[in-house]
What does this fold into?
Amino acid sequence: MAKVQRTVTFEMPDEYEQEVPTTTMGKTSTIEYDGPGQLILWVDKESQDIEQTWDKDDYTERPVPLNCEVKTIDPDSDENCIKIGILFGGFPQRLLYEIRVGPADEMNRVIADPSDPRSIFSENDIVDDYTKPLVFRQGANFDGVTGADPGAFRRRDDDFIRDVRNGKLETSDSSIAEDMPADVKAEWETYRQKLRDLPVTWAAVPNHLISFPVAPDGEGDDPYVRNEDPYHEVILVEARTAADNDAIGQLVPISGIDEEASDLK
It folds into this structure.
């Protein structure tokens, strides 16, 4: 069974990682699917959770666990293509973007393409029951956590920021010594002052987009290595194309992000 190529169209929420997703703005996007002509699933009979997935072309007869049954997803609709693309693959490599956010003297945040289906739809909900309609993600990387308040995870309140800050200050307590070179000592003192200033210096930015400063020894919380790894190349602000600006347009409704609609035309 050959791979299937298809242009997939899908709805987007009004706002990036919106706490209660809405679609009143009518946003849509597209992505190219080039993936399995059929996805084989092992699904738990009782919970309906997906246990394993295979491309039909690579699937060979094998004993199925007693608790599972074999199901399939065919890429015969945009929704099914998205489910396969998220569960198994079939979409292009996800793009990474630098976004203008926070104090001017701080490193800009890097995020995965906010218009990509893998950034928009909840994988956990697909795994829990692949037959149900797609569900928008609610909360950065914490969607589907049982009993969790999605907004609390998404926004990360100020107490959370302070707790992380205090941990970093404690970790770096021993980094300054009286006999160390003056320039190195100054770097550590500047780093520690930036930590103390949080979250006040980032008050205009949603907490889930706050970047903690990078320590002089390279310790930081930026999840992506900038342009040192070909698989994690970051598209910098000055290098964006018109298509990149369309993708970043998903961020425009969020206050605290220095991305103006006029920049994205």
The chain has one domain: 4-154+223-264.
